[in-house]
Amino acid sequence: MKEEKGHSISITTSSWVKGALVIAAAYALYLVHGFLLVIIASVVIASAIEPVAIWARNKNISRLFAVLTVYVSVTVIMVGLFYFLFLPLLGETADFVRTLPTYSESLSSSGSISTFSPSDVARDATSLFSFNELAGHLNSLLDSFSLGFFSSFSFVFGGALSFILIIVLSFYLAVQQDGIAKFLGVIVPYQHEKYAIDLWKRSQKKIGLWMQGQLLLVVIVMVLTYLGLLLIGVPHALLLAVLAGVFELIPLFGPILAAIPAIFIAFAFEGTSMALIVAGLFLVIQQFENHLIYPLVVKKVVGVPPMVSILALVVGGQLAGFLGILISVPLAAVLMEFFSDLEREKIARGAERVGS
Questions:
Q1: Same domain assignment for residues 207 and 160
Q2: Structural domain count of the chain
Q3: Residues 47 and 180 in one domain
Q4: How far apart are CA 190 and CA 198, in angstroms?
Q5: Number of other CB atoms surrounding residue 122 within 10 Å
Q6: Which of 40, 105, 170, 274 could form a disulfide linkage to 266, CB 3.0–4.6 angstroms apart?
Q7: Positive or negative torsion for Cα 132, 133, 135, 139
Q8: Could you give the CA distance from residue 298 to residue 282 in angstroms, rounded to a whole number?
């Protein structure tokens, strides 16, 4: 027993037991964290399908038929994107990395701008990184993904067992009427069951709005960038368009970051005139986005704030890889709703104290 300023702190055997139980529970969660990620990912996927199931119910369409249609459609789309977008993109990325030293040589031989020498930057980068080695790793990755759609997605989702479990569990939750609510009712204590279900339903709406806005924005920017670069003849148009779509997720600075590699390649390929044309193209796309696409798409489907989504994606990717990225924004939306509820409860209690 330790006494200090009239206060006593008692450490009993019960305290040691409780501490040991907490540590044991934390260690057990660490051991089964992979399975917990699978369950959370299944709930997220089933929640994404729920609006389609509700629409089908309103149209007197079988829930099983609607869910099966979604799974088949998504599978067809994913297979098409895998073979006709992802694999060509990976191969183009390897070619781009392999030809970076060639771009450096073309910049050094042009000598058109004396005050600014991109060749020095490219040469320094070449000395720091082995582009041929990086291209070799990308080719090895391409060979691994070329084994097939199922093998590739099993690798991305952390193994064939995790991939199959996610599909089976998400289908089971989606095909049941109120499947997610029933699942939450099983795992959440009874006294918190109603609040947990209401919290998830509100978060699900926010997640859906965020996904709609971001997906539409990314697809539109990717298509516009690809068509523009293809028309003016800039190499690696597919890679640069995908980069533009990815950078579009970054608020404010995304379009600027997307334009830098495109302008660099255009300058190395055709010189200053092509670089200026590419810069003008990205400027036009950015203005088109700011004054038309963004007000019509994103501002009307407000969900998760951009900075919160970016931080969630980065943290989720660092902690749990692809599954972490998949569940990061939904979990961030749940936490936002939870903290909003705490803030409202705090304000309500403060008002009650003032009133009394």
A1: no
A2: 2
A3: yes
A4: 14
A5: 21
A6: 274
A7: positive
A8: 20
Amino acid at 232: I
pLDDT over 90 for what percent of the chain? 4
Structure tokens at 65: 């038929």
| pTM for this model (two decimals) | 0.66
pLDDT digits (tens, 9 = 90+) for 192-228: 888 888 888 887 777 766 676 777 888 888 899 999 9
Contacts of 251 (CB under 8 A, 6+ apart): 306, 307, 310
Final residue in a domain of this structure, among 152, 187, 222: 187
Q: Side chain identity at 109, as an amino acid letter?
A: S
Closest CA to 275 of 286, 288, 259, 287: 259
- Residue 11: what pLDDT? 60
Angle of the 190-232 helix axis to the 33-58 helix axis, nearest 10:
80
9: its two tokens: 């702190």
Q: Which residue, 139, 168, 187, sits at the end of a domain?
A: 187
**Are residues 264 and 177 located together in one domain of the fold?**
no
Segments of the chain scoring below 50 in pLDDT: 1-4, 112-129
